[in-house]
Inverse folding.
């Protein structure tokens, strides 16, 4: 069961983290958790999403009777948000009484800076919106999930199902990308896996206060050093990785070597190329993570992968197809 899959530990040089408390199967749900704190990403998002459950609002949404800025998708969500208390706070601290330079917008901005412990609940995926322009609808803090450390070749990824019906739509769901041995640290990527080395390092240093020294970064830092010594600009790209072969091993346990790999020299230069072929979604250029669906009741792998960004499903044999094309099961 998911509840016994992880244990917290103090890790040298990494702070607190979560380790596999037992062997974990690919696709297994290893953590499901309700948010301890949930708040809108910005005031601009209030008209588009329910202020209680953060589902997308329809034309039939009910406006908040106190402020008229927030909206609710149902009477139950409106009741859960305690509109009378909302009205009391608004009356006691009207905008003109706030300290100089302080505003509701600033409050939302300060909360949104809490990146070290919060997860973004994203707006619905739209193919026409480029990856860098996608926005969060809300931020959530989850007690155990906040202990998951970063790796540029993660062995797990998280899903949010904010618009699904029923309770628990803001819960975080963490699934294993591949088999994880007992005692191995379970890690997520804090951003899209196709980011370049210099962009990943800059983001981690500015928002999280550390430089990544994972296996992938160690390899790509050598590319940058080689480019600098050759007079290049050091701009390592995903295209370079994909063009130089896709038959290497992943940088973590549980990732198998691609069939037909003869152990060429290029595999030493690109040991993580197989990771991108297998786990990076290319549907609509969303570049989300493809995680296997949970194992079947008989314990066999599902052989179906789900993207944590666009929600697209793909068969395993189509992902590993030689042409590398977009072989989606459903749009």
């Amino acid at each position: 069961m998911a509840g016994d899959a992880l244990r917290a530990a103090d890790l040298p040089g990494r702070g607190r983290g979560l380790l596999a408390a037992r062997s974990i199967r690919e696709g297994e749900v290893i953590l499901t958790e309700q948010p301890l704190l949930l708040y809108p990403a910005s005031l601009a998002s209030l008209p588009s999403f329910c202020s209680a459950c953060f589902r997308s609002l329809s034309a039939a949404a009910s406006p908040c009777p106190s402020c008229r800025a927030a909206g609710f998708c149902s009477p139950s969500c409106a009741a859960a948000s305690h509109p009378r208390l909302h009205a009391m706070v608004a009356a006691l601290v009207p905008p003109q009484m706030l300290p100089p330079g302080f505003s509701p917008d600033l409050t939302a901005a300060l909360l949104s800076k809490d990146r070290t412990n919060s997860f973004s609940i994203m707006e619905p995926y739209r193919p026409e919106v480029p990856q860098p322009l996608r926005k969060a609808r809300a931020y959530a803090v989850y007690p155990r999930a906040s202990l998951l450390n970063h790796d540029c070749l993660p062995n797990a990824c998280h899903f949010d199902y904010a618009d699904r019906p029923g309770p628990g739509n803001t819960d975080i769901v963490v699934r294993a990308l591949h088999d994880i041995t007992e005692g191995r640290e379970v890690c997520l990527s804090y951003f899209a896996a196709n980011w370049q080395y210099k962009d990943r390092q800059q983001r981690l240093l500015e928002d999280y206060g550390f430089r990544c020294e994972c296996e992938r970064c160690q390899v790509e830092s050598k590319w940058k050093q080689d480019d600098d010594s050759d007079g290049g600009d050091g701009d390592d790209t995903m295209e370079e990785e994909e063009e130089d072969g896709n038959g290497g091993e992943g940088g973590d346990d549980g990732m198998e070597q691609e069939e037909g790999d003869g152990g060429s020299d290029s595999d030493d230069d690109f040991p993580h190329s197989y990771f991108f072929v297998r786990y990076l979604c290319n549907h609509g250029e969303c570049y989300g993570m493809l995680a296997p669906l949970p194992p079947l009741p008989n314990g066999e792998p599902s052989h179906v992968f789900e993207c944590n960004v666009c929600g697209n499903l793909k068969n395993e044999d189509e992902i590993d197809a030689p042409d590398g094309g977009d072989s989606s099961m459903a749009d």
Observations:
- The longest strand covers residues 6-11.
